[in-house]
Description:
By secondary structure, the chain is an alpha/beta fold.
Amino acid sequence: MINFASTCSALSSPALDILWSKQWNLGPLIMCLPKDTWEVGADNFIRLSREPLPTEWECVRLNASRIRELSHNIDIGYKRPPQPHSHVLHKLFALFPPASLFPNLHKLDFKVVSHRPKFSPDFALLRQFLSPGLEVLAFYVPSGIPVHEVERLSDALGAQASGVRHMVISANHDGSRCQIDLPFNKMQKLHLLNLGPNVCLTRHDLADIGRLRSLQVLRLTLREGFGILENLRLGDMRLELSALNRLTIVTDRLQLCTSFLLRVITPRLSSIHIQYWKYAAPAEVGEFVLSLHTPCQSFAFLEDISVVRTGHPRDFYGPLPSDLFRPLLKFRKLTKVVFMAQGQYCLDDAFIDDAAVAWPDIQKLGFASKERHTSTVTFTAVLSLASRCRSLRVLHLAFDGTQRPTLPYRREGEDASDGKRELWPTQTALERLHVGHSKFSRAALVPWILSAVFPNLSDIAWYRAPDDFRIIPWLQEAAEFQQLLRYRKIDPMMYALLPNFVLSVLEENMSLESSCKWWGNVLL
């Protein structure tokens, strides 16, 4: 773009507007000064080597006016680009107040200006960046910050930044609360609110959040004795978030999520993501699943459920039977259901069959247990589920692959307008399969059946226990599956016969070795 703009003076200004519109560091701005005015020290900070003349600052001011986003880039590689020293920034902002220096700024991550673990005068600069045009704001509340500084920031947010739509607040106060009274009553355009660990809102804040008719995305960190949850328990009424669409909760205990859900109303909630790390007993998992009915009230909107435990893999895992998850079947719009590492998922074929009926539009389904256990879900049930759910692309489920399956056929009432009795050749969506700790036998023809039934399946993954140093059987099965995929590319016409070949083997109960002779001994 630089070369293109240099060919025509009329293009220079628009090109510079684009090049400067998004910045991850204020270093390039200071480097607009003459080279003899600044230097980069061994600590990678930019300092002034001489006092720039007033006219020399003009280029800095001009390019700053082009900046629309100041975003913190966490993926900048090993070598960090030079950054202005705080003395340089204070000099710059003394000459040009931030609100006037960046008149077109609509997105600010204050880490670009300052990210210090303890309170410093830099934090007071945040108020000077606030303006009616600011739409996205992220800031970090350092430890040791005086109460009056937080109060001044809160007042400034309501008076100067009422147009903010996305706000992210984080804090690290060594385990203590960081209480901030935000002027939500003056921030009616707020669409996304992300509150990090230790950020504690008041009961007054909670009442005002309930009046935010534009709030669609909420991310919370819940800890026992902190913030929102405690204040909700003190309230007389449940908190209604009428427009909320997406909810993310990070916590140490799943029970805290359950307590929160029982105290809120989210009639239009379509996505809920939970992450926790302490063990939850099977009964507590069941209580959480039931608690989803309370905020949703209606089963018409929820589309995405993800519950992930991030605790130590050697923690105790309890059995989780199908009955605990049956309340989810009432949510008929689900397209993503993921439960990971809560315990041993002791699901059965009846639940898998009912899930295929309840979630016809499911795209991603996972019950991922990292502990070895024997699954009672049959290979037949897995094939039936994945064949009937035509949009299913990702499946993570352990099953018993030791017996040859019965291929799924159309049931009474299912569409058979194409004249075919078999259901399974019509599933073309499934792309990724994770079999967990599934058991199998070669006689079950697992790779052959998967390749025939799911023509777009390209990836099979599995778990290996840390103490298992044997040759993993699934490694051999996956290798055989990949050979079949390669054969599809070599001879597509021959490969097109694979479904009929597999069907004949199953119907006539032939051995794989004898039946492969006419297949040209592809693998054997």
